[in-house]
């Protein structure tokens, strides 16, 4: 965590130094125009690549397949676009490179391996919130740990899972899901 804090602290100074150094060599207006041009081109490229990633996700999900370009790729497109909006040469180079599909595939593979390694080591944890109730009781609460009136539990449809229950709306389906074997 400290290394990210140090990076966030030093990056603006490095960017400022590069802007001043390049500005001295080529002049103020060319430096400003390059920074503005990379911001415009980068935002256009981020929009195009983001649309392409979303279209591929939508097409894959419509055919009930797992998208080849996962969440990491979409997150890298967003990060690349964000870095291009930050004025500076270093962030522009990193942002533009993240918008290129071959670079994204390389970074995604590295990120995936790092996450898998952390999951195997047990140092990567996923926290979810499930269920409708709360573990309560909470201080000052007159009844048990649920925010819902007790009478609501009486209205829940009964019956075997996986079928439309009688008395339930036709739009309500209680289903069970299983995981398929991973595709390689």
From TrEMBL:
<feature type="region of interest" description="Disordered">
    <location>
        <begin position="126"/>
        <end position="184"/>
    </location>
</feature>
<keyword id="KW-1133">Transmembrane helix</keyword>
<keyword id="KW-0472">Membrane</keyword>
<dbReference type="GO" id="GO:0016020">
    <property type="term" value="C:membrane"/>
</dbReference>
<protein>
    <submittedName>
        <fullName>UPF0716 protein FxsA</fullName>
    </submittedName>
</protein>
<feature type="transmembrane region" description="Helical">
    <location>
        <begin position="26"/>
        <end position="46"/>
    </location>
</feature>
<dbReference type="InterPro" id="IPR007313">
    <property type="entry name" value="FxsA"/>
</dbReference>
<keyword id="KW-0812">Transmembrane</keyword>
<feature type="transmembrane region" description="Helical">
    <location>
        <begin position="71"/>
        <end position="90"/>
    </location>
</feature>
<dbReference type="Pfam" id="PF04186">
    <property type="entry name" value="FxsA"/>
</dbReference>
<feature type="compositionally biased region" description="Acidic residues">
    <location>
        <begin position="174"/>
        <end position="184"/>
    </location>
</feature>
């Amino acid at each position: 965590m400290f290394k990210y804090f140090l990076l966030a602290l030093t990056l603006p100074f490095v960017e400022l130094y590069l802007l001043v150094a390049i500005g001295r060599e080529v002049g103020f207006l060319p430096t400003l125009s390059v920074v503005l041009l990379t911001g415009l081109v980068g935002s256009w490229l981020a929009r195009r690549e983001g649309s392409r990633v979303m279209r591929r996700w939508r097409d894959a999900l419509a055919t009930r397949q797992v998208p080849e370009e996962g969440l990491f790729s979409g997150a890298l497109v967003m990060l690349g676009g964000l870095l291009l909006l930050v004025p500076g040469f270093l962030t522009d180079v990193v942002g533009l490179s993240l918008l290129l599909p071959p670079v994204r595939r390389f970074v995604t593979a590295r990120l995936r391996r790092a996450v898998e390694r952390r999951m195997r080591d047990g140092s990567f944890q996923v926290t979810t919130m499930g269920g409708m109730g709360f573990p309560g009781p909470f201080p000052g609460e007159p009844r048990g740990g649920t925010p819902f009136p007790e009478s609501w539990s009486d209205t829940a449809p009964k019956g075997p899972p996986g079928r439309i229950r009688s008395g339930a709306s036709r739009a309500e389906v209680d289903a069970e899901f299983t995981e398929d074997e991973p595709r390689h």
